[in-house]
Description:
Layout: E1 2-5, H1 11-24, H2 37-45, E2 52-59, E3 62-71, E4 80-87, H3 96-110, E5 115-121, H4 125-133, E6 137-148, E7 151-161
Parallel strand pairs: 4-5
Antiparallel strand pairs: 1-2, 2-3, 3-4, 5-7, 6-7
Amino acid sequence: xxxxxxxxxxxxxxxxxxxxxxxxxxxxxxxxxxxxxxxxxxxxxxxxxxxxxxxxxxxxxxxxxxxxxxxxxxxxxxxxxxxxxxxxxxxxxxxxxxxxxxxxxxxxxxxxxxxxxxxxxxxxxxxxxxxxxxxxxxxxxxxxxxxxxxxxxxxxxxxxxxxxxxxxxx
Length: 170
């Protein structure tokens, strides 16, 4: 396994695997993913690494997953970052998610951020366990936010504070 920053040349493969996971319907909020390869390659090329990073995971030389980190550019929120990640089904549960979370947390620490946040389906027990292992806690939930056939999915919001000084004003 090798984790590296995405390159514009990865666009076609990233579109392909994102669309594959989206069609599974139970891991990410998208139902499909089909930007033009040229537009997506441009999007990758313009990543400002202080505010956004897109990493890929390679196994045996092929991309099997991705991690996207976005730091808010809003001055009121630029102490925070969002995390999104996924991998192809045959690679789940073997430690790749742990490595991706380590990468995300390190990225935030390097930029001296205070908080990371993400959302996850209530039915994705493996992802919930992974996020809790890293210290993420549930901070909200939209019930029945998604529907796949007759199955409703709650969207759980989770947050992580890089330091214990993550306090709110009264």
